Amino acid sequence: MANQPSVTKVTETGEAVGGTIEGQSYIEAFLEMLSAERGAARNTLEAYQRDLKDFAGFLAGRRRGVHEASTEDIRAYLEALNNQGLSAATAARRLSAVRQFHSFLYADSVRTDDPCSTVEGPRRARPLPKTLSVAEVDGLLAASRETVDGRSHEEEVLAYKRARLVCLMEVLYATGLRVSELVGLPLSAVRGDQRFLTVTGKGGRERLVPLSDTARAAINDYVPLRARRLGDRVSPWLFPSRGRQGHLTRHRFAQLLKDLAASAGVDPKRVSPHTLRHAFASHLLANGADLRAVQQMLGHADISTTQIYTHVLDERLKELVETKHPLAKKDSA
């Protein structure tokens, strides 16, 4: 493929995103393919775009377009990421984006080779997911229920926000939804048969997740307050907002969760929406739930992703034996 002059784009902040004009068009075509053919979510597309722009910026320094990379360019890029002190997980994610981009170029006959085919990714130990104990989750749920029955406008707003927080917490812990799935729930998801929640997950795949009695009660308490809060406004979202997305954002919910953790006496650094998703899975498995059932509820395409939670239980059992077993106490004496 003939080389063309490299055109380095620079943002208003002075950040070079690099690449040739033609190379940028290939990135856009790749993202369009992910959206149209694979149903990739917006957050996924934005992540791919960031990673590929970073790769393009690196190649621009070597006077190559993003579609002209060689195997040595890709290895040099991984070395540069390592020299920047980035984690192996971050480097592996960026390499994954680069691999898929070049598979796309090869499939579309833009290139006659795949420069990633012989590149080995950084080795990384898979970390165990952070989770919370049952008592800690109970504390968070109890703190969210400390409602104030208000009569003034300010108190009514407070009652609405409290009911919304209770609903968010109960639904999250009852279903293990991804935070983007939770805040993006449509109002239609809780209409009709409330024994199950219909969730659209990654890749547009739908799944049914059972709702607990407390989650259904929280929804029933929240929905009337939601309608009163909206007034004449109409919103398709279960958790509406006046923001650009039209619904509560992931970041705002994460902030609310940090505040809730502080009031419940749980270290806010240990609490996030994803931590509660981990707690949902770990607590189910600890109480004898079937691994396949947990996989379906979490929306994992591969059961190996779900199996990581069994390692969490193994570690806890090991700790229990080492600290509580009579022989262990005797050895430490």
Describe this protein's structure.
There is one protein chain. By secondary structure, the protein is mainly α. It folds into two domains: 21-107, Orthogonal Bundle (DNA polymerase, domain 1), CATH 1.10.150; 134-324, Intergrase catalytic core (hpI Integrase, Chain A, Orthogonal Bundle). Helices cover 58% and strands 3% of the residues. The protein has helices at residues 21-38, 42-61, 71-83, 88-107, 134-144, 153-175, 179-183, 213-230, 250-264, 273-286, 291-298, 303-306, 308-324, 326-332, and strands spanning 196-200, 206-210. A hairpin with a 5-residue loop joins β1 (196-200) and β2. It is elongated. Residues 1-19 and 147-151 have low confidence and may be disordered.
